[in-house]
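Reply to dn_fold:

You asked what the input looked like. This is it:
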Amino acid sequence: MAKYLLVSFKTCPWVQRVAIVLREKGVDFEFQHIEPDNRPDWFRAISPHNKVPVLRLDDRVSLFESGAIAEYLDETAPPRLHPEDPVRRAVNRAWIEYLPTFVDLTSAHAYAPSEAGFEKAAAEVPVPFGKLEQALERQGGGPFFNGAPYSLVDAAYAPFLQRHLFLERIRKLGHIDRFPRVKAWAEALAARPSTHSFPPAEFEAMYRDAVKRRNAWISRFVDGSKAAAE
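and this is what came back:
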């Protein structure tokens, strides 16, 4: 069995995606956390795009880009998280491809510098939620994307749905409440042990601190809002 080292920023959702896949497969690995504003030379040497995650294999091979790493792990470590049926597998991959668009539309309000920018970005959140609501209706009865089996789609969306739930506790939009399948999916993923690299309350506190330091319009509401564990 290869030795796995996952190079990470502590709160990076793309790293979290890879860590989830590793945990779902029961693969032993170690984290090495680095600071986003102080990336060491050794990291620059193993990360072609100077980004995390990087998965080191036996300290000799570096894999990069979270989607590529997830696919590698699914090909090399059981259990298989992609569906066996090639059509369902293609559908799953298509929804994974949608992830960057989903992330942009559901998180832009958290970076808006003004109330007007916040409101404009927040108005776009229902669009990707509506698309996913329809997809979940076609895929099965939950709790996960394909129904009962956990998949790479779940691992991909879990970090970002988790963060949306965090944001809802800072400044509630309520859009997710209009999409019961998406909300139930988000809550099921948030409750799954593999989602968590840190104790949930500790991680939410880390995330809230990051939002506060971002100095976006939403940052002013961090201190006056309550986290789930409070």
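DSSP finds ten helices and four strands in the chain.
Hope that clears it up.
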